[in-house]
């Protein structure tokens, strides 16, 4: 079988969604870990240093290109699959199945993904664009100049309830997207051992709660003056 | 168990042929016994329609004992009706109560075009089976089944997958109209047994290729198929198919 045949087959496309999704999950771990530095209670010194490392070291910069490519692949493939799958039933049912047998979030990955995409556009405009393109205010730590990303976060979130609410809603969409996506990614890779399926399900739910909750607490922390 | 009779309002999809528009017709049925099967209730309705000089409702059925996979009604928003692990023919009228309105629709999927009323064309499943859902055996004396050792665990899993009757409820329930539960049951049934091992790579590649050609959607693990399957086929079979397909196609050296 040719590479092109595999990756254009329904199962191959699912594998692409799975592998790209797992890469994005790995990215979330890095992202939440670095951002947690805002809670070091040092006026953002540790956070700005961590952000500086991510912006200046060659490894994260190369990975950043891969990250954008993966985001692009996951989003485009996801949207294409959603529309292709919807077109497979031209005439629908008069009485819908609703949630009989299938939880709402398992059937709403396209919608949840789209909400995350809208959040992502806002998020990139808030932080990635100033960090990499338009520039940030400098801050001097031990005589060395850094971008003051911490101050940027404060300016985005402080006294801006609407933005904080949008971020929390974005994290909420992410949580439900992950509840299904985490375990589905492993099933797409062929996981059939029930011992491991149970483990993946538990780890997946834990991840889907903890990581988006930690992200959601970041804008809330700025807004409520916890940092 | 209490025996009772009921009067029902039925809203049934009527469609003259594949190209006709189709619409719901409303019927009243009276004195239906709680011990009748759902299809027997339809027999009563059809006799009534014939008696009144009207055209009876076309619906698929054959064995009426839950093993042939012919019956295919989407009842009140669920393939095969409200009972778990039950085909339409094994659904009994005690699932309903006097005065209920029951909406009956055909399976809906592009790959299952309506032939007439509640009858859909499921020959796409036959073509998927023809693409690889078999074991090639040369003619001659059959080998004693006990001569081939099979691990009990695998034999049980293969048997559970082989229980699939190919009714298509999985497709009817899936928001993507995916046939993955059906195809994965057939792939798993044979992949788990030594007899199926020889052709396992070509089988999974050919069956998935045919499935895609027939116009079924892709699986997104919504689990709706498993919930409505009258034979309670597990979606773990879909995971197995994914693994089998990846291994077979990535290892294949065909250009």
TrEMBL record, chain A:
Transmembrane segments: 21-41, 61-81, 109-129, 161-179, 199-224
Domain of life of the native organism: Bacteria
Gene3D superfamilies: Fumarate reductase/succinate dehydrogenase, transmembrane subunit
Keywords in alphabetical order: Membrane, Transmembrane, Transmembrane helix
Protein known as: Succinate dehydrogenase cytochrome b subunit
Protein's organism: Terrimonas ginsenosidimutans
Lineage: Bacteria, Pseudomonadati, Bacteroidota, Chitinophagia, Chitinophagales
From TrEMBL, chain B:
Record-annotated 4Fe-4S ferredoxin-type domain positions: 155-185
Keyword 4Fe-4S: yes
Pfam families: Fer2_3 (PF13085), Fer4_7 (PF12838)
Keyword Iron among record annotations: yes
Gene3D superfamilies, per database record: 3.10.20.30, Alpha-helical ferredoxin
InterPro entries named in the record: 2Fe-2S_ferredoxin-like_sf, 2Fe2S_fd_BS, 4Fe4S_Fe-S-bd, Beta-grasp_dom_sf, Helical_ferredxn, SDH/FRD_Iron-Sulfur, Succ_DH/fum_Rdtase_Fe-S, Succ_DH/fum_Rdtase_N
Keyword terms, alphabetized: 2Fe-2S, 4Fe-4S, Iron, Iron-sulfur, Metal-binding, Oxidoreductase
Cofactors, names only: [3Fe-4S] cluster; [2Fe-2S] cluster; [4Fe-4S] cluster
Cited PROSITE patterns: 2FE2S_FER_1, 4FE4S_FER_2
Family designation: Belongs to the succinate dehydrogenase/fumarate reductase iron-sulfur protein family.
Name of the protein described by the UniProt record: Succinate dehydrogenase/fumarate reductase iron-sulfur subunit
């Amino acid at each position: 079988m040719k590479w092109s045949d595999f990756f254009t087959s329904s199962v191959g496309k699912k594998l692409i969604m799975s592998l790209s999704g797992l890469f994005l999950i790995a990215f979330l771990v890095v992202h939440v870990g670095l951002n947690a530095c805002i809670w070091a209670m040092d006026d953002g010194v540790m956070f700005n240093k961590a952000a500086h490392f991510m912006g200046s070291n060659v490894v994260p910069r190369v990975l950043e290109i891969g990250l954008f490519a993966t985001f692009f692949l996951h989003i485009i493939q996801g949207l294409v699959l959603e529309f292709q799958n919807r077109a497979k039933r031209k005439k629908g049912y008069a009485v819908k199945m609703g949630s009989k047998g299938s939880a709402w979030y398992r059937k709403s990955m396209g919608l949840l993904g789209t909400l995350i995409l809208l959040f992502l556009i806002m998020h990139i405009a808030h932080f990635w664009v100033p960090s990499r393109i338009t520039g940030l205010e400098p801050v001097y730590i031990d005589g060395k100049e850094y971008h003051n990303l911490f101050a940027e976060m404060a300016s985005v979130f402080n006294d801006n309830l609407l933005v904080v609410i949008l971020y929390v809603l974005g994290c909420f969409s992410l949580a439900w997207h992950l509840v299904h996506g985490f375990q589905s990614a492993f099933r797409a890779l062929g996981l059939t051992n029930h011992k491991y399926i149970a483990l993946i399900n538990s780890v997946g739910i834990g991840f889907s709660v903890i990581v988006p909750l930690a992200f959601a607490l970041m804008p809330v922390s700025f807004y409520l003056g916890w940092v | 168990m209490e025996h009772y009779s009921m009067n029902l309002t039925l809203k049934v999809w009527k469609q003259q042929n594949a190209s006709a528009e189709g619409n719901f017709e409303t019927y009243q049925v009276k004195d239906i016994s709680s011990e009748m099967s759902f299809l027997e209730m339809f027999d009563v309705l059809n006799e009534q329609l014939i008696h009144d000089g009207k055209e009876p409702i076309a619906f698929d059925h054959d064995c009426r004992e839950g093993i042939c996979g012919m019956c295919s009604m989407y009842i009140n928003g669920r393939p095969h009706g409200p009972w778990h692990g039950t085909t339409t023919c094994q659904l009994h009228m005690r699932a309903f109560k006097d005065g209920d309105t029951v909406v009956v629709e055909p399976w809906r999927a592009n790959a299952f075009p309506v032939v007439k009323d509640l009858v859909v064309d499921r020959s796409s499943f036959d073509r998927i089976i023809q693409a690889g859902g078999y074991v090639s055996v040369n003619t001659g004396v059959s080998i004693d089944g006990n001569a081939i050792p099979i691990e009990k665990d695998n034999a049980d899993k293969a048997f559970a997958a082989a229980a699939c009757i190919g009714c298509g409820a999985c497709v009817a329930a899936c928001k993507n109209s995916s046939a993955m539960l059906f195809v994965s049951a057939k792939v798993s049934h044979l992949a788990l047994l030594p007899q199926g091992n020889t052709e396992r790579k070509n089988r999974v590649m050919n069956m998935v290729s045919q499935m895609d050609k027939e116009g079924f959607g892709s699986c997104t693990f919504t689990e709706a198929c498993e919930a409505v399957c009258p034979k309670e086929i597990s979606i773990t079979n879909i995971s197995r198919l994914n693994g089998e397909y990846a291994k077979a196609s990535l290892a294949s050296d065909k250009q």
